[in-house]
Write a structure and sequence with these properties.
Blueprint: H1 13-23, E1 27-31, E2 37-41, H2 42-58, E3 66-70, H3 75-85, E4 90-93, H4 100-110, E5 114-117, H5 122-128, E6 137-140, E7 155-157, H6 158-163, E8 179-185, E9 193-198, H7 199-209, E10 222-225, H8 237-244, E11 247-250, H9 257-266, E12 271-274, H10 276-289, E13 298-301, H11 308-318, E14 321-327, E15 334-337, H12 349-356, E16 367-371, E17 386-391, E18 414-422, E19 428-433, E20 438-440, E21 443-445, H13 447-454, E22 460-470, E23 474-483, H14 491-499, E24 510-514, H15 527-533
Parallel strand pairs: 1-11, 3-4, 3-5, 4-8, 5-6, 6-7, 10-11, 10-12, 12-13, 13-14, 23-24
Antiparallel strand pairs: 1-2, 8-9, 14-15, 16-17, 17-18, 18-19, 20-21, 22-23
Length: about 550
């Protein structure tokens, strides 16, 4: 017997319909790329997205066509996404921080036909466009007045192009499993792998993200996604915020501490989200300027492990609750959020921070398990760590063109490549990437734990730990430090600071000081490059 309920396909553009209908006047405020603050609302975003769908069709775009975007978070990027989705074309976000050759490779792999690009990234696009055979048109997200001269005929100004259509258009309807978006993972080895979201997975994922213990967005909130739309769907916010009728405050190209501070306070942001490096910049700015964050209630921090010192500063100095989150491009991206369950509600101070360094617990639909090298499930005791596997309706079932098939098994478990442990209350703690974990005398040492500890030292700006070959123990940890400006920490002072906080055999065998630690295009420490840079290093005793 089948249920007798309506078969209502979960299509992404229904989200902007809902926002326009029930929250139409809610603001979408952006720092525009040309300069100045731009204000619109969900009603107008929808109208312009309808116009955009119609205009794309006039250019011959159809269901399944890949349409790339290389853009900051602004109202234009948002309406471009919905316009693409409304005809069943596929938005493909490009990360401008990748090497140009890598971007060209990705565009060729996806066979992008049209590209929307912000003025900022036009130089990159000019260099790579000749290498992308499928690319027919480039639309610059600005008006005619701001267009540079001497551009080829297939490069047009967005506002002029859009004005050639009206908004008398009806969204297309199709199967909810239709591809909605693409994003390539910034793999550090091998070719990038394409993740392909569906309309259904995006809608389900946004609903999951809205749960109170996850992002918990409400119509009264003003959300600033600092995390770019080209980094794993801006963590669902382009869908979850309109779904909840939450105002969106878009930072545009202003990613420095001062600009973020101005938007947070000037626009009365209540919740924001970004990677730890962004928050380090903001906290430094606040320190320098003696600033306060009177409206901000919650900050979501993920993408790499959030150091305890950041959580402590936000909560104790600025009265802002930190929600540590873990996820992956392949998971749409939300995997877990560290909100406090009743079991931990009695904790305060350092004991509470002990929980908040964990990445947290999953929303409904995300299933996880940890396994050893023989695929045996490991206990959830908060200390036994193993490879983390996940599955769910907003988790990839394959990569584009079947790459990386070994990461998926027949029961659909996806091997995240992360290593972690889970405690009795279902809180995950990521201890490493599988390829970074240090194997010392048959036991594992977590590089993330050591890094977090080291950045708690008052003179340390950034820390990374890598394994160095050791004749007796196979591998031992080497701590790499970037000093804070004007500070002179020594190896001895750092090791003394760490000494009573980890098992003795975890303590790094040596500390080296560098000016800079290399990062990936999504702001993570690039350990492959760091290992390469330090490949001549040997421990003295070895
Ligand atoms: P991406 O697909 O670029 O978002 O990268 C996903 C990877 O980032 C994960 O597999 C983790 O290795 C890492 N990651 C994301 N969030 C966290 C976190 N809160 N703590 C530690 N690692 C994280």
């Amino acid at each position: 017997m089948l249920g007798l309920m309506q078969d209502w396909p979960l299509l992404c553009h229904k989200v902007i319909d809902h926002a326009a209908q029930y929250h139409g006047a809610r603001e979408v405020v952006s720092r525009s790329v040309e300069g100045g603050i731009h204000r619109t609302n969900y009603r107008d975003v929808r109208n312009r997205a309808l116009r955009l769908s119609k205009r794309l069709e006039m250019d011959g775009a159809v269901l399944g066509d890949r349409v790339a975007t290389m853009a900051w978070n602004t109202w234009r990027h948002l309406e471009v996404w919905y316009g693409i989705l409304g005809i069943g074309a596929v938005y493909h976000t490009l990360n401008p921080r990748l090497f140009p050759d890598q971007i060209a490779w990705i565009m060729n792999d996806a066979e992008d036909k049209i590209l929307f690009v912000d003025l900022t990234f036009l130089p990159i696009v000019k260099a790579i466009a000749p290498k992308v055979a499928s690319l027919e048109k480039i639309i610059v997200l600005t008006d005619a007045a701001h267009m540079p001269d001497d551009l080829p005929a297939n490069v047009v100004a967005y506002e002029d192009w859009l004005a050639e259509a009206d908004d008398d258009f009806a969204w297309k309807t199709f199967d909810e499993k239709t591809a909605a978006g693409m994003c390539y993972t910034s793999g550090t080895t091998g070719d990038p792998k394409g993740v392909v979201y569906s309309h259904r997975s995006n809608v389900l994922h946004a609903m999951m993200a809205l749960q109170p213990d996850m992002l918990g967005l409400a119509a009264r909130d003003r959300l600033m996604p600092v995390v770019p739309m080209f980094h794993a769907n801006a963590w669902s916010t382009a869908f979850s915020a309109p779904m909840a009728g939450t105002s969106m405050i878009m930072p545009g190209a202003g990613m420095d501490g001062k600009s973020i501070f101005e938007m947070l306070t000037g626009e009365r942001v209540t919740i924001t989200a970004a990677v730890p490096t962004v928050w380090l910049m903001l906290l430094q700015h606040l320190d320098k300027e003696n600033g306060a964050l009177p409206d901000l209630e919650r900050v979501v921090i993920g993408g790499s492990a959030c150091p305890r010192a950041i959580t402590k500063a936000f909560q104790e100095k600025y009265d802002v609750t930190v929600m540590h989150a873990w996820g992956m491009t392949e998971m749409s991206p939300l995997g877990t959020v560290c909100s406090i369950k009743p079991e931990y509600a009695h904790l305060a101070g350092e004991e509470k921070l002990d929980i908040q360094v964990k990445q947290g617990h999953p929303p409904f639909t995300v299933e996880m398990k940890i396994v050893d090298d023989e695929e045996h499930e490991l206990p959830w005791d908060g200390k036994t760590f193993g490879r983390l596997k996940v599955r769910g309706p907003a988790v990839s079932s394959a990569y584009y063109k079947g790459r990386g098939a070994e990461q998926f098994d027949e029961e659909l478990w996806f091997d995240t490549g992360d290593v972690g442990h889970v405690d009795a209350h279902g809180y995950l703690q990521i201890t490493d990437r599988a390829k970074d974990v240090i194997k010392s005398g048959g036991e594992w040492i977590s590089t993330i734990d050591l890094e977090n500890l080291a950045v708690g030292h008052p003179d340390v700006a950034e820390a990374a730990v890598i394994g160095i070959a050791h004749p007796k123990w196979d591998e031992r940890p080497l701590l790499v430090i970037v000093r804070k400006d004007g500070r002179e920490p020594t190896k001895e002072s750092i090791l003394a600071f760490m000494e009573d906080k980890v098992a003795k055999w975890w303590l790094p065998d040596d500390v080296v000081f560098v000016d800079e630690i290399p990062h990936t295009a999504t702001g993570k420490i690039q350990k492959t490059t760091l290992r390469e840079q330090l490949k001549a290093y040997r421990f003295e005793a070895a």
